[in-house]
TrEMBL record:
PANTHER family: CALCIUM-TRANSPORTING ATPASE (PTHR24093:SF450), CATION TRANSPORTING ATPASE (PTHR24093). Keywords: Magnesium, Membrane, Transmembrane, Transmembrane helix. InterPro entries: ATPase_P-typ_TM_dom_sf. This is Uncharacterized protein. It comes from Solanum lycopersicum.
């Protein structure tokens, strides 16, 4: 933004009102376009991530807790739960701080 102010100021002093401001206004327009395109891209990515996160939360896994098998959301798998996979037990789920706290 400093470059815009300097460019407009120098252009105005050197070439006068309309001609001297073209470079500065071009820089300002370029900055504006980059900011808008980046914001739109980030917003679209956040929407995609939100949709993927919703799908991930729907995943149910089968675990053994207190000697009985239960289907729980993947976010509720906590340390000490034994995950069942095709008839055999996997030692434990990944520790999930949210599920334990």
């Amino acid at each position: 933004m400093v470059c815009v102010v300097v460019s407009i100021s120098v252009g105005f002093v050197m070439e006068g009102w309309p001609k001297g401001t073209y470079d500065g206004l071009g820089i300002l327009l370029s900055i504006f376009l980059v900011v808008v395109v980046t914001a739109i891209s980030d917003y679209r990515h956040s929407l995609q991530f939100r949709d993927l996160d919703k799908e991930y939360k729907k995943v149910l896994i089968q675990v053994t807790r207190d000697g009985s098998r239960q289907k729980v959301p993947i976010y509720n798998c906590c340390c000490g739960s034994r995950r069942t996979a095709s008839g055999s037990d996997i030692e434990s789920c990944i520790c999930n701080e949210k599920a334990n706290g």
